[in-house]
Amino acid sequence: MLLGMKPNAPTGGQPDIAVTAAPAAETVARLRATFNTGRTKPVAWRKQQLQALRRLLTEHEDVFAQALHTDLGKSATESHMMEIGFLVKEIDHTLRHLDRWLRPSRVWVPLSLAPAHAWTVRDPLGVVLVISPWNYPVNLALAPVIGALAAGNTVVLKPSEVAPATSAVLAHWLPRVLDPQAVAVVEGGVPETTALLEQRFDHIFYTGNGTVGRIVMTAAARHLTPVTLELGGKSPVVLEPGADLATAARRIVWGKFMNAGQTCVAPDYVLAIGEAGTEIEAHLREAIREMYGTDPARSNDYGRIINERHFDRLAGLLNDGRTVVGGDHDRDARYIAPTVLADVDPDSPVMRDEIFGPILPIVRVPDLDAAIAFITGRDKPLALYAFTASKRSKRRLTAETSSGGLAFGVPTAQLAVPGLPFGGVGESGMGRYHGSYSLDTFSHLKSVLDKPLQADTLRVTYPPYTRRKDRILRHIT
Ligand code: NAD
User: 130-147 pLDDT, tens per residue?
Assistant: First the structure.
């Protein structure tokens, strides 16, 4: 039984009135007052919060899975793999290493300052605002909260209103299992987020699209608040002829059509070199059939589009190439079949903005030079993937392109390596998190110098300056 949980407590639906009714300014003031007491600083408090969150996720996985199914039609297995189980691993990794990450780090002191000691310590920032999106509405809300709490902050979480069932579950449970004076959930859409953004925070962590990212950064600038922006973009998959295309196709289909393509790091399009462009078509068709059957609408493992607006946007892209497989859609069910388009014109609408849905265009290029030019000629992607048997190609892609992350042989799985930072670059975002990188994001690395007063070894640096002092100073500094 979870600490402080009522056995018959509701599991969502109604927002937690006590928490959401408090105006933004009051909520932030309350959390700041808590922070100023110093209560969130001891490592024991931080660990307690993480353990309570872990218990909530493991003992009530079904509540989260149900909400994810309601919002996005996610299967329980996918919800575990990509959201709940993912967070439990993130908590375990953080708990395992937190003491070490928080240990002060010694720094060498130059001779001119000796004797003295120097080191760095991690200071929590204060009150952190986390604004999360709808596509992985549990993972992307709680993974930053884990980092913010581990670093000793108080947190306001604003979940996405576009995934209302999940938002309600978070608003209901978090204040019940976490320290309610240190963690608040504010539900709502643009007006509520705008009201929050008027407040002064010590860090704002935003995940979502670049347009709102700019709004967040503008609001943060008024208070000189640092921001982390986890944005999106078009993540390409480079496919070279010598690679095992059957395996590549299975992995591309897995990464692309999970959550019906609504994944920030999903392969956006395939950049196929030479013959790989034609050969991959049959393999992709076969992989989709293997994973989702001949009628994916009947598969329990295939998700739905979040709402009508996104459905209409995606339906408008279905004719931007020759249909290799898929194309079926049903607005009432918000269903779009896993779709592969070939012979796609690089200037067509499907190649303009991030697709964020189950449509996979194949663009053909003659060689690796052309593939690299194609990638570097566009916005820096959140992720770049490549399937190649060539070490030289791997080296070239690593050295000659820039992206938030780079993975060979498998898409999206870079997120499952807790030691790797996650974040974008350029249009795909700024800042990074996960594991120790979350500690970096949510703390200030304070430099400390301690020089004993006993012997005043600094005399030589004080005026009035003489020739002798000048000579010594030039020698030792
Ligand atoms: P969304 O519509 O849920 O918006 C994200 C958050 O911004 C929500 O909490 C929402 O309430 C808030 N918001 C929306 N409009 C606002 C406004 N005018 N002012 C203030 N706040 C506002 O999600 P989305 O933006 O549609 O998410 C999809 C995008 O996010 C895609 O581009 C995707 O690639 C990106 N994404 C990135 C990551 C990552 O980790 N880098 C993860 C998931 C999604």
Answer: 999 999 999 999 999 999
Q: Which residues of 315-350 are buried (b: 16+ CB within 10 A; e: fewer)?
A: bebbebbebbbbeebeeeebbbbbbbbbebebeeeb
**Quick check: helix, strand or coil at residue 260?**
helix
Question: Is residue 232 within 6 Å of ligand 1 at its C-beta?
Answer: yes
Tens-digit pLDDT profile for residues 348-369: 999 999 999 999 999 999 999 9
Query: Cβ neighbours of residue 462 under 8 Å, at least 6 residues apart?
Result: none
Residue 355: half-sphere exposure toward Cβ, Cα within 13 Å: 33
Q: Which of 90, 230, 281, 354 is catalytic?
A: 230
Task: Tally the residues of the chain.
Answer: 477
Cα separation, 411 vs 237, in Å, equals 8
Residue range 219-250, pLDDT digits in tens: 999 999 999 999 999 999 999 999 999 999 99
CB 443 within 8 Å of CB 433: no
Do the strands 117-124 and 105-107 form a parallel or antiparallel pair, or are they unpaired? antiparallel
Q: How far is Cα 442 from Cα 178, in angstroms, rounded to an integer?
A: 18
Spatial separation of the C-alpha atoms in residues 16 and 29, rounded to whole Å? 19
Q: What is the pLDDT of residue 13?
A: 43
In tens, the pLDDT along 88-114 reads: 999 999 999 999 999 999 999 998 899
Which residue's C-alpha comes closest to atom 28 of ligand 1?
Answer: 208
β-strand partners of 130? 157, 205
End-to-end CA distance of the chain: 62
Distance (Å, whole) CA 117 – CA 115 = 7
Asked whether the predicted pLDDT for residue 173 surpasses 60, the reply is: yes
Cα separation, 396 vs 376, in Å, equals: 13
Q: How many Cβ atoms sit within 10 Å of the Cβ of residue 418?
A: 18
Give the span between the Cα atoms of 437 and 155, in whole angstroms.
18
CA distance linking residue 381 with residue 235, whole number of Å: 5
Nearest Cα residue to atom 34 of ligand 1: 232
Would you call 230 a catalytic residue per the annotation?
Answer: yes
CA-nearest residue, atom 30 of ligand 1 = 208
Helix (H, G, I), strand (E, B) or coil at 42: coil
358 lines ligand 1 (CB under 6 A): no
Scanning 258-307, the segments in alpha helix (DSSP H) are 276-292
Report all structural domains of the chain as residue ranges with CATH numbers, in order of start: 2-231+431-445 (3.40.605.10), 236-418 (3.40.309.10)
d(CA 202, CA 460): 41
Return the DSSP state at 377. Answer: T
For ligand 1, say whether the CB of 296 is within 6 Å of any of its atoms: no
Catalytic residue among 90, 187, 240, 264: 264
Round the average pLDDT of the chain to a whole number and report it.
Answer: 94
